[in-house]
Amino acid sequence: MLARLGGSRAAVQRTVTAQPRWRYAALSSSKDGRRGDDGAGQHKTPIVNLLWELRDAVRREREVGAVRKSESKTLAEDDDSLEPQTPISTEVLYEFSKDASLKDKYLNPWHRIRVGNVIEDLDALAGNVAFQHCSANHQDMSSTMLVTASVDRITMLHRASLEDDVKLSGCVSWVGTSSMEIKMQALSSWSQEPFLEALFTFVARDRVTGRARRINPLKPETPAEKAAFEAGRKRADHRKQMRKQHKDAKFYRSYLEDVLASELKDSDEAITIEQAANALYNNAKPRLFMPAIALKNAVRLSETRLSNTFIMQPQERNTAGRIFGGFLVRRAYELAFATAYVFGGAVPRFSEVDEVVFRTPVDVGDLVHFESCVLFTSKTLHANPSIHVEILASVVNPEATNTHVSNSFNFTFEVPPGSQPLSTVLPETRDEALNIATRFYGDVAQKIEDETLLSEATRDGA
Fold it and tell me: Quick one: which of 239, 260, 276, 301 is 20 to 30 A from 207 by CA?
């Protein structure tokens, strides 16, 4: 599927294996596209509007051609209906070179692309990819909902310019029983190398019971598709293993010197996350208790916090009538950016989204409180000194006087060369120390994995 957004028109091309056809949908960048049912998406970015229009068109086509099943059977019970699907790439083209109005919608104050808007678009595109995979062969999706379970990683490889056209693409890379991994990329028109890569995990749920629903298996055919499927399987197995072995996971004590900004004895010793948390807390105590003489270029974690609170408006709903996950990620990104900016004293450069977890859905009318903090800074995990920001989104219910965390987000920003030295962040409680150690371990493990993959790729290419 290919969608173009630019000028006064968006051309949409979608190929269906059984009955090839061309379909076009007109959309002006200065006028929101409208869906025929509930108007979801009308107040989003032009790309989100277009993608949801396309999804609605596909849904209606599937409903017309669906073979009605017996009322006694469900998708979860009728495995014969789950035909394996080949990976199909869905693409969206931003024609910034032709459309000044579209370009203005994605412009940030530093004349670069608004990363938060692109992340919001990525979530919408991933939703389209998931829906297309699960609704293939006129599959009836009326009783199934697809939701974003997590964003495992979004990495900015280099900064994009609004002088170039940009293409977003997404494809299912791996499928389990009721979940799927979708690999996303963003490329500038002048390069075949992506400037942004992302991994989204979607899950299928029964609309009534909320239980897991089986989805179509994936049938990779080309060597590239098979390699992507194998990589996705390894990532899924790795996540399961990490959850099981979390308490026993170990890394070298020397890594902590980066976070503590001080040397440690027995730095070549392997320690657990809990031991690392104890080392962080014990290192922070004298500086917390004697700030006048010990607090050198260090700040308490509580001093890094920023927050904001929003009423979730109907205009932010998705096609299921709940608050669009991409909107929540964009709000979290903007708060994380501001937090890194205030902390680092210079305009930060977005590096990556380390992890986003959607724990519970957010509904229209909910009062959502976003709170940020800097977990730690690092000199070694990235090319430039980096700031690692955590955002927790909580749904607040004043009538019931309770609150619960609905989403968690982790972002990494780099400060430009020549910026002032970053302060060390000190945990004030053991829970804060454990949170820092856990997130730091995840980033260290990711860095080691990246270096291993690069080494293997270099060796295979030699």
Answer: 239
Is 50:25 a contact under the CB 8 Å cutoff? yes
Would you state the structure tokens that stand for residue 230, as one six-digit string?
């194998």
What tokens appear for 134 in the block? 């699960």
- pLDDT tens, position by position, 108-132: 999 889 999 999 999 889 988 988 8
Given a contact cutoff of 8 angstroms between Cβ atoms, the answer to whether 152 and 167 are in contact is no
Q: CA 214, CA 204: separation in Å to the nearest integer?
A: 7
* Nearest one of 256, 443, 292, 411 to 344, comparing CA atoms: 411
CA-to-CA distance for 336 and 248, rounded, in angstroms? 30
* Integer Cα distance of 250 and 334 in angstroms: 33
Q: How far apart are CA 276 and CA 251, in angstroms?
A: 9
Residue 314 amino acid letter: P
Question: How far is residue 268's CA from residue 387's CA, in Å, rounded to a whole number?
Answer: 25
The CA radius of gyration of the chain, in Å to the nearest whole number, is 23
Contact 160, 195 (CB under 8 A): yes
Can you tell me the distance from the alpha carbon of 186 to that of 225, in angstroms, rounded to the nearest whole number?
18
- Residue 26 has what pLDDT? 29
Indicate where the chain has its CATH 3.10.129.10 domain(s).
2-239, 243-461
Residue 156 — φ and ψ, nearest 5°?
Answer: -90, 110
* Reported confidence tier of residue 64, pLDDT bands at 50, 70, 90: low
Torsion of CA 306, 382, 240, 81, to 10 degrees: 90
Q: What CATH fold (topology level) applies to the domain 243-461?
A: Thiol Ester Dehydrase; Chain A (3.10.129)
Residue pLDDT, tens place only, 80-99 = 568 888 888 888 899 999 99
Instruction: CATH number for 2-239: choose from 3.30.499.10, 3.40.50.2300, 3.40.190.150, 3.10.129.10.
Output: 3.10.129.10
Instruction: Report, as an integer, the average pLDDT of 411-416.
Output: 95
Specify the pLDDT at position 44: 64
Q: How far is C-alpha 272 from the geometric centre of its chain's CA atoms? A: 28
Q: In angstroms, rounded to a whole number, what is the distance separating the alpha carbons of residues 38 and 15?
A: 27
Could you identify the residue written with the tokens 């730690």? 376
Strands 144-156 and 250-252: unpaired
Whether pTM > 0.70 for this model: the answer is: yes
**Backbone region of residue 73 per phi and psi (left: phi > 0; alpha: psi in -120 to 50; beta: other values):** beta
> Residue 316, by phi and psi: left (phi above 0), alpha (psi -120 to 50) or beta?
alpha
